[in-house]
Design a protein that fits this description.
mainly alpha
């Protein structure tokens, strides 16, 4: 992965002064990637992600190079050979960019004519095997780039299965033809057991947003289309895309979408400055104690009441056995944050200690640890 990054950095540096040479380098790298990586263990998938990011960058460099059609055609032939030789595969994503790599509609149409007979053959009811062809995505992308939208839809109709990977090009074609309502219906008809619903939602949301139908886009697709790696990332993505919506409304809808896990949205509420709501969420369902402790520590001076509530919630969820691999240090951190926030909020330390004693009085999973760690503090 480090070597790929180094190669990309070198090519990007050359592209500033010699874009054609950089494009040649990009093609050479794409030709070498799969043979170089096929013996590397990448069970985590991290290497594949690195290659996909590299393809995103390299394609742009190749497209930007201003060259004669004959040279670009030679480049495309080299890339097509690399795709055919891609056994693992590592660079199959390249097919999705084929229309862009062609640059001109004429070049794209030429490649569509090259690919289409093979696609029709493997999709024929009489075809043997599983109907797989490495150039299928490249064919559909080329037809779209060439503006052959009606032919593209007709070709996709011949596919033996309703697979979103193919039908997304039909959605693009219908949208380009101005048939946006039909494009959304076409996308919705693509849903199936193994199809990525979030990608379908993203496509439909983009169509509605491009039509200025923000409320419809939000109501129908916002929550499904903007799932981030964290709950906070999800909230931020939706808030950025829908500036017409108040943070309280967005959070209310997100919270309602995860009944029983309201505490997962604590960080999002805090990030939006909704401290009362954040404290309520932390108390309503399990929330990561370390997240609560950080909030208590960070806001002890600026929002002491909120910080105190977050710190006490951290100790409460620890006492109930929540949190991954909780240690004595985590307990002490939470207690320290609580005492700091209590001082800022003007709450006597004795009253805070009484609340904590009540937490550890029962036989909950985390009480033994808390009693041991905080024994000296609570005895004062």
């Amino acid at each position: 992965m480090q070597r790929i990054k180094e190669a990309i950095a070198e090519i990007k540096q050359v592209a500033r002064k010699e874009p054609v040479l950089a494009a040649e380098g990009a093609i050479s790298l794409l030709e070498k990637l799969s043979p170089a990586l096929e013996q590397v263990d990448s069970s985590s998938g991290a290497l594949g992600s690195a290659v996909n990011k590299a393809i995103d960058t390299l394609v742009l460099i190749i497209v930007k190079a201003d060259v004669e059609p004959q040279l670009r055609q030679r480049w495309l032939k080299r890339l097509w050979q690399a795709l055919q030789d891609d056994e693992m595969p590592y660079i199959e994503l390249l097919g999705d960019y084929w229309g862009e790599l062609c640059v001109t509609p004429e070049q794209a149409s030429h490649w569509a004519d090259e690919f289409m007979p093979v696609v029709e053959s493997v999709w024929s009811p009489k075809a043997s095997g599983h109907g797989y062809f490495k150039g299928t995505s490249a064919c559909l992308a080329s037809m779209y780039a060439a503006g052959r939208h009606q032919e593209l839809l007709a070709l996709i109709d011949k596919a033996p299965f309703k697979w979103w990977h193919d039908r997304r090009w039909g959605v693009k074609a219908l949208s380009a033809m101005g048939k946006k309502a039909e494009a959304i219906r076409y996308a919705e008809e693509s849903r199936g057991l193994n199809d990525p619903g979030w990608q379908i939602a993203q496509a439909c949301e983009a169509i509605l947003l491009s039509s200025g139908l923000l409320d419809d886009a939000y109501r129908r697709y916002a929550l499904e289309a903007n799932q981030g790696t964290t709950h906070l990332a999800t909230f931020r993505a939706i808030a950025k895309k829908y500036p017409n919506k108040q943070p309280e409304e967005i959070l209310g809808d997100l919270i309602a979408s995860t009944p029983g896990a309201e505490g997962k949205w604590f960080a999002a509420a805090k990030d939006a400055g909704l401290f009362v709501l954040a404290a309520e969420l932390a108390a309503r369902s399990p929330t990561d104690p370390r997240t609560l402790t950080r909030a208590a520590r960070d806001y002890a001076d600026k929002q002491p009441d909120f910080a105190l509530a977050a710190g006490l919630a951290a100790l409460r969820w620890i006492s109930l056995g929540h949190g991954y691999d909780i240690t004595g240090a985590d307990v002490l951190d939470a207690y320290s944050a609580v005492t700091q926030a209590a001082a800022g909020a003007g709450v006597p330390a004795q009253r805070v200690n009484e609340q904590i004693r009540e937490m550890v009085a029962g036989a909950q999973p985390g009480n033994s640890l808390m009693r041991t760690i905080l024994a000296r503090h609570l005895s004062n």
